[in-house]
């Protein structure tokens, strides 16, 4: 019996060490939405404002993301600065993937929105088929983490297309689109807290919706007034949100307020 308890203790310790994602707290959603906003504004800043162009920007940011992702995958536990840097970069890359298809190849936003939705559904189906769970509380193996980041990449690409579709193609407007997505997230929260809908399902639906929400907020803040924006510009918006992200991440690094408890991993 003692040997069994010791083995169980080792398993719990290993699981806690290997879990690679933060707990879903208010801090999580704040950083996530701001990271998606930065993904939208930073991509525009690099490609348009700094005149790097979509192709060069996509190559540079994809290489940088790949390097950071390698460090993230090689890490043995959740590291706030590394994890959220990966999220910010994948947000930028996801935005650029969508923008390249739409602006570079002339594919419609309807087509890219549907295509990314299908790809994301395939990733979730494959992930669940192999692992029998989509819970972020159990990202304790390399295979699960690869599924996790692949799903996130498609949520960002799809969110960019869907956000632009509502705000631009349907001409809803950036602020109005942001309100629609915010109300949709609130509805998901009501279903979870009110009707106790499946937590994993609600998490991923809300996670997906935060991408177009952040993209719409970013465009609304950065675009000129004549284009239905506030006119803050991509530089101001990106720096402002990056500063808040950095401050919250530093707080989490010190406080450890977003660590997943061993019992949750088990």
From TrEMBL:
The keyword Ribonucleoprotein does not apply. InterPro entries: DUF347. The chain crosses the membrane at residues 21-38, 50-71, 78-98, 104-127, 147-167, 173-193, 200-218, 230-254. The keyword Isomerase does not apply. It comes from the Bacteria. Keywords: Membrane, Transmembrane, Transmembrane helix. This is Membrane protein. The lineage of its organism: Bacteria, Pseudomonadati, Pseudomonadota, Alphaproteobacteria, Hyphomicrobiales.
